Amino acid sequence: MRLRRSWxxxxxxxxxAAGLGIAVTRIxxxxxxxxxxxxxxxxxxxxxxxxxxxxxxxxxVAMRVITRRLASHRLVNRVDPGAAADVIDIxxxxxxxxxxxxxxxxxxxxLTIWKWVPGQVDEATQSRLGTLAAQYHPGYKPVFTGxxxxxxxxxxxxxxxxxxxxxxxxxxxxxxxELLDLVxxxxxxxxxxxxxxxxxxxxxxxxxxxxxxxxxITKGAMLLVPDVGIFTSSDAQRLADGLNAGxxxxxxxxxxx
Length: 257
Prior knowledge:
Blueprint (H helix, E strand, L loop, with lengths): L7 E2 L1 H9 L19 E9 L7 H18 L4 E5 L5 E7 L3 H8 L6 E8 L4 H7 L10 E9 L3 E10 L2 E9 L1 H15 L9 E6 L2 E8 L7 E4 L8 H13 L5 E4 L3
Parallel strand pairs: 1-10
Antiparallel strand pairs: 2-4, 2-12, 3-4, 5-6, 5-9, 7-8, 8-11, 9-10
């Protein structure tokens, strides 16, 4: 049986986020001016887009993720649609081409949030989350809530109180915040400390946290703490960096100029 360290998913994380004074700015659409030695200009082609996502939506998501990646490194940037429908143009001030490419092409952490409902895990879900998805709560299957890492504005290291120690504060955009409000309202209405009351947070295909929901989350921010194992400040920083890097819906290939 998997050991589980329970904590309350709710207002505590939001209050902590507010107390830290998180200020998030999406640096996009700035007038950087024409390309110059101080401005790096790169173009990428987005391919291998998931069949379930329209190409235009995938490019919009990729542009947001790239903007966030660069902004998390405090780089002033402009990310625009390219001349072709699958091309993205990037301009970054005060950086080298190698630095920009390393940030844009980094592998981020994929965050997805699921709820448990009665039923058997289907093959598509097992392919996405691994075979253990059918073993966490026999008789229940994870159902995707629609909340994922593409909706993350910023992730930063904070402190949890239950259990005490480091955690990762995640702030979502308007769409993510609205979904989080709806999902946590539904889960909080279920009997506390039951499977129906929990949300499962996966990082890539790993079940990072299987959390009881104590109340509706209305502010679009939550605190992540793993259920098992030792979670150090270094672990929290790596997770925050991975979430800030985000996940590109497809494959980026740099175009030669």
